[in-house]
Amino acid sequence: MEGVSSHRTLSYSRWSYDSVLDDEGSNLRQQKLDRQRALLEQKQKKKRQEPLMVQANADGRPRSRRAQHSEEQAPLVESYLSSSGSTSYQGVSSSMSFDEEEDEDENSSSSSQLNSNTRPSSATSKKSIREAASAPSPAAPEPSVEVEVQDLEEFALRPAPQGITIKGRITRDKKGMDRGMYPTYFLHLDREDGKKVFLLAGRKRKKSKTSNYLISVDPTDLSRGGDSYIGKLRSNLMGTKFTVYNNGVNPQKASSTLEGGTLRQELAAVCYETNVLGFKGPRKMSVIVPGMNMVHERVCIRPRNEHETLLARWQNKNTETIIELQNKTPVWNDDTQSYVLNFHGRVTQASVKNFQIIHGNDPDYIVMQFGRVAEDVFTMDYNYPLCALQAFAIALSSFDSKLACE
């Protein structure tokens, strides 16, 4: 019996010793993984802090040299541009203090959740638009969700669902009398089944001192007094700054007894700056939109004078209730002799109008992208926090801008 007891004790001791070794091995492996993860996060943070750093695709997959020539990287400008010119193309310096989102590893697809104490996603918020929206990057595989459109006007003004890219297509109609000078633009929603759903139509007014586009939810009624009129886009005299309004009343034409709720809202402002490489080079584009509150609703901006407008707030760095966006810096490609952006197959033809809109602190999250696929056909995709009317009007400004002439 004593021999059996000692044998059991020996076996138990050996099992305990092996268990301790296993635990120590697991701890060592875990510590090694933690060190590798911390090192990777430091490298990613360092890369993001470098100026004009081209960010890697969100999927993190290595690509062959041949794959880089695919149509996914659509050129912005044709190959007559010289690659020898020096480039000082910088994004608009932002006063936003967003925290950069750091993935634990390249394959991580987790996103931060917005808690009830999160501040509004304004220009001074400490969370990026992507974090506030809890949305994955559009560069990653997107969920296959069919967006239903029941009330056109309500849909056009509602921000895109969080985590869902709204894919649209703009067609330009130049046929008919004066259509060459004043074409009509139609925005349709691209559906998974290939069918198109009409969303908005826009037309440039003829007798106006500045560029003035009327936007309607009825393709057959583009009049200012019509029931389908939903908003407008108006430029300054130079054609370099644009403002997007809803269908409210102009404060200069409003009576003193008019309720504040009926005054027009400013939904967006777009500012183009001189091309950095001459008339045909990449353009610098800033987009200012109202901020979002804690329940993901757009803050109402109803200016009663010029000092309260989106452009004035942005120029005066009064960024408490606005979000400042900019176009993504294109990259020069020596093989194609052109500036390119990765549109992930949604843009196939070179055009100076092609652009992607991002926030400066989160360049992987594409808030909006727009580009040519045929002579008079363009794709227009947008994400939270933009709505269809904002995105459509921003695209119209690209058609009209005097800096966009080709």
From TrEMBL:
Q: Where is the composition biased (Basic and acidic residues)?
A: 31-43
Q: Where is the composition biased (Low complexity)?
A: 79-97, 108-122, 131-147
One record GO biological process:
protein localization to cilium
Name of the molecule in the record: Tubby-like protein
Q: Which residues form a coiled coil?
A: none
Q: Domain of life here? A: Eukaryota
Keyword Cytoplasm among UniProt keywords = yes
List membrane-spanning regions: none
Q: Where is this region: Disordered?
A: 23-147
Residue ranges, compositional bias (Acidic residues): 98-107
Organism expressing this protein natively: Rhinolophus ferrumequinum
Q: Mind giving the lineage of the organism this protein is from?
A: Eukaryota, Metazoa, Chordata, Craniata, Vertebrata
Family of the protein in this entry: Belongs to the TUB family.
Q: Where in the cell is it found?
A: Cytoplasm; Secreted
Which residues belong to any copy of the Tubby N-terminal domain? 35-90
Task: Please give the InterPro entries that the UniProt record associates with this protein.
Answer: Tubby-like_C, Tubby_C, Tubby_C_CS, Tubby_N
